[in-house]
Specification:
This protein is an alpha/beta fold. The protein contains ten helices and 15 strands. 40% of the residues are buried.
Length: 269
Amino acid sequence: MATRETQTQSREPLLAESRRAAILEMLRSTGAVSVTEVQSRLGVSSMTARRDLAELASRGLAQRTHGGAVIPSISAHEDSFSLRLEAETDAKIALAEVAARRVRARDAVYIDSSTTSYFVARQLLDANIELTLLTNSLPVMQLVSTQGSPNVHLIGVGGALRPLTQSFVGPHAVSMIRSHYADHAFMSVKALTSTGMMLDADQLEAEVKRTIISHAKQSVLLVDRSKMQARGLHAIAPAAELEMVLAYGIRGEELRILKDAGAAVQTLG
């Protein structure tokens, strides 16, 4: 007759495999998953969630990232919105505070799908001023719909949804952006080259950002030092074409190079 300990040991592999199958399903549907999401969805500890992600990575079914995992085929290009939201938060908060102070009552503001711009949206909602907010970011739309005020008029830019970045892209998104014009556009990018060229990992995202720049009176790029060391595949536009680059933690030679490329840079941090 099997002991209680033997029964527990025999059940554990089955429970573990069931959890890992559920995590794989989450990965396939969104492209990425965080430790926090695994904990919440499956009701397990962070240690168990990390162990399951590590096991899937060892089988080649996932690629570990800071705070979670992504599908291996996309890991070299970009991380999910939820994972990026947890990275460099001090820099993003500082950048968002300065950016939001540029907005006046009754302005129209474009917010792109970057997590840095998400923090700008939060600052604008907290300011409780009257404004029109245009965005292709689903998380920003959700934020405004749940925490917004009657003073904020939301215009959601539709199109094809990219599950990884939770953003709407493609011809419909570009067409809708072209039919509006804003006082300000706040955005971030995957990478910023030493020549001041803004890059993105996805061609459709790059096209959306390019269109936003062309339909805003003042476009502001929000970046921290990590963007100077990252890589992107698709060119958006030179940073010199923007009204301002708000740069957190960029100094010395990197700052000189940006300014030599013609970018108007304001440093923070």
